[in-house]
Design brief:
This protein is of the alpha/beta class. It contains 17 helices and eleven strands. The longest helix is centred in the last third of the chain and has 18 residues.
Length: 395
């Protein structure tokens, strides 16, 4: 491959003018990303040949260029080899367990206008934010179903679900669950610090897309239009001592291969800067929702399999999560090849676990509606164990 992929970072402390500049570990990702031309990410993918794929398969430590080789169309004939290696690496690092968790939707109020999301401000759905009694009821319902790890989810509306609301919810929920994670609007370092001190261990925050033009196209109103603020949110959470940062792209907004390359660059930047933190990757694929996006860019099941396998080979330490967006057949098949965490029984509307409510409040449709016990039974048939918490990570 003639062109090596990297973001621009300054590595010396002195500039040509004698003034101190930021080192590569002091720079936030957005600084380097602002100098990256999106179209340049396409060129290395087109230059991949069989030799590049074979070299990547033989390596123990993969570069960004190797990752590009494995997600390229040229690597598709090598899926069986990739799967064998991904399965071996996953068992070596994570054993035979997969962690279960459930999303707990606290609110569907959102002040952003996004083309792909059911919570978008212009969609005509009934808005709901859980009060204390409703939060307690959701917690009780999830405990009865066997969950001990929950992901707190809200729309992005700082006046309704700002730090005070989130802090109150965490105070009520932390005594009830061993692990709490959040998927909420980007916060300041100080706000992340408040939640971290209250016991939140993990952040999930997806950039949606790293393509500046596509990001502008799909985020049409609200604070989420600020791409740079979102790009730097994982670093603010890491500065607040979050133990685990979960990244991802929303697959279907732009070219998934270029977006995945960008995400890999982001991951490597964070790993270098926050080497004590753990990192994870998720693979949300666009699903039907209210006011849905027309003509999302399609990625086949085979291509999604290739992407997940490539991530496992790229980094054997990554937690790879797969949600109920995907169908049972796909989740069953990929479980033994690299996935380490799975959501289950997901209801994507506030109050959905405790109430038998209509689905008019949901963020998107789920594909896998199986009960936790059914998922557990299938995994056991494959020699895998579904666990409620991962004490190894956070002990």
């Amino acid at each position: 491959m003639s062109q090596s992929i990297q973001i621009s970072t300054k590595k010396s402390n002195e500039s040509s003018t004698g003034k101190r500049t930021q080192t590569s570990t002091e720079l936030n990702f957005a600084n380097g990303w602002s100098q990256q031309r999106w179209d340049d990410l396409a060129t290395p993918l087109k230059q991949v040949d069989d030799a590049a794929v074979q070299r990547a398969l033989q390596k123990d430590r993969l570069s960004i260029d190797d990752f590009a080789a494995l997600i390229s169309p040229q690597a598709q004939p090598y899926l069986e080899q990739m799967a064998e290696k991904a399965q071996r690496l996953t068992r070596q690092r994570f054993g035979h367990v997969i962690q279960s968790y459930a999303p707990l939707y606290l609110s569907n109020v959102c002040s952003n206008w996004c083309s792909y999301c059911g919570f978008s401000i212009h969609n005509k759905l009934r808005r709901k934010t859980l009060d204390n009694n409703e939060i307690d009821a959701e917690a009780e319902a999830l405990k009865k179903r066997g969950f001990d790890s929950v992901l707190l989810v809200t729309g992005e509306a700082e006046k309704t679900v700002g730090i005070d609301y989130l802090s109150n919810a965490v105070k009520r929920l932390k005594p009830k669950f061993s692990q709490l994670a959040i998927e909420v609007q980007p916060l300041t370092t100080e706000e992340y610090g408040v939640l971290r001190k209250q016991g939140v261990e993990s952040l999930s925050l997806y950039q949606e897309t790293y393509n500046p033009a596509s990001y502008a196209e799909h985020h049409r109103h609200g604070k989420k239009q600020d791409m740079v603020y979102r790009l730097n949110a994982p670093e603010r959470a890491a500065d607040a001592d979050f133990l685990k940062i979960n990244l991802g792209i929303l697959i279907g907004l732009t070219d998934w291969r270029q977006d995945s390359l960008a995400c890999a660059l982001h991951l490597r930047h964070l790993q270098k800067k926050y080497w004590t933190a753990r990192f994870g990757m998720s693979f949300p694929r666009l699903r039907p929702c209210a006011g849905e996006l027309e003509n999302p860019l399609h990625i086949s099941d085979r291509e999604l399999l290739q992407l997940i396998l490539a991530w496992r080979l790229f980094d054997a330490e990554l937690d790879l999560g797969l949600s109920t967006r995907e169908a049972p057949e796909f989740r069953n098949g990929i479980a033994r090849l690299g996935i380490t965490s799975m959501s289950a029984e997901s209801i994507t509307q506030p109050g959905g676990y405790a109430e038998d409510a209509a689905t008019a409040l949901e963020q998107f449709e789920v594909s896998d509606e199986r009960k936790l016990d059914d998922i557990k039974a299938n995994l056991e048939q494959q020699g895998l164990m579904l666990i409620a918490t991962d004490s190894h990570y956070f002990s």
